[in-house]
Description:
The protein contains 19 helices and 12 strands. The protein is α/β, with parallel strands linked by helices and 418 residues long. Helix 7 (139-148) runs antiparallel to helix 8, helix 10 crosses helix 15 (352-363) and helix 13 (316-323) packs across helix 16 (371-382).
Amino acid sequence: MNELLFLAHRIPYPPNKGDKIRSFNLLKHLARHYRVHLGTFVDDPQDWRYVPAVKELCGDTCFVGLHPAWAKIRSVSALWHGEPMTLPYYRNAKLQSWVDGILKTGSVRRILVFSSAMGQYVTGDIRDTRRVIDFVDMDSDKWRQYSRKHPWPISWLYRREGEALLRFERAQAENFDMSIFVTEAEAELFKRHAPESAKRVTYIENGVDTDYFSPDREYPNPYPPGEQVLVFTGAMDYIANVDAVDWFAREVFPDIYARHAAARFYIVGARPAKNVQNLAGLPGVRVTGAVTDIRPYIAHARAAVAPLRIARGVQNKVLEAMAMARPVLATRMAMEGIQPCPGLELLVTETSEAMARQALAALSGDTLAHTGQRGRECVLRSYNWGENLGRIELLLEGDAAKASMAGGRRGDISLQRG
């Protein structure tokens, strides 16, 4: 079996947030075809318990603990070296030594890097080795968007990060044989910013475990009797999610609550930031923190909301709600990376007034009954992990022309949950 080096900025398990959903399914898929050597960070102490399960999929491994607070302090050094702060955040001598040792054996001829920051570990002259990088999203543009949402000096810092990271992303794309993004739109955006590498840029879309996220299962109702719920799911320490729920809770939901007394807005997700926790003091707003299973919260909601005003790539929270046949009230940015689904565009709004009207219609049962089912049909049609990941071997084996045309092999890759 051929050997492959896989580097990821976060342990690819459990698949409970966007990047880990993708990296876990990549790892599981690759383990069927390669002996995978995994180097990764563990930035959540709770995730150390999953190391044995991840090791079962791998050959050699290197797991490095990362303390976010110390990593942020370390990242400040980038301001004196003209590099993006993301690089020292994820820079580690132990991991670099392990990578160098793996490559010196001469048995690894294929490298897959997950996220731009991990590319710094394989920047040297590595002969006879096929290198592919999965950027997932164009992170530099995300920092540019962040800069518009914050006052100076944070806006300056974020803008600088976007500019520095774009320079690094472009250098990475030139250093690797192929660059992958999560959507066609994301790939096209990068091509415009890095035209010198455009011919070696492609995309592989995410998938959804439609058996796990199924509307046909029985789920216990987590909501008190009489509540009619609009739900947001996601990691609640993530800037884009924090901005989304803050805007919805303060600018959209008050109008909904004033007109519909039974309405409730539930924010469901781990590690809620302080200003997210503060939203629980608003009438009708509930903040749950981490839950063991998000499916009951989606299944028993009248609608899912995705009021994102900062976004890149594809929103897994949207796909999961669609897979469960729930209406999704979303902004254009939240739906930008989703394949077109006829009929669902009616629920995409930009203003607080329009979103409130859509929410009131959903709460009153006036939203078209087939909207949720259409969303699930869209997911079934376009977001199969087995089919979408089938192209990765062609990219790793150097046949990019076939990869650009192939739909991959159909197959059901179940999404395990920890």
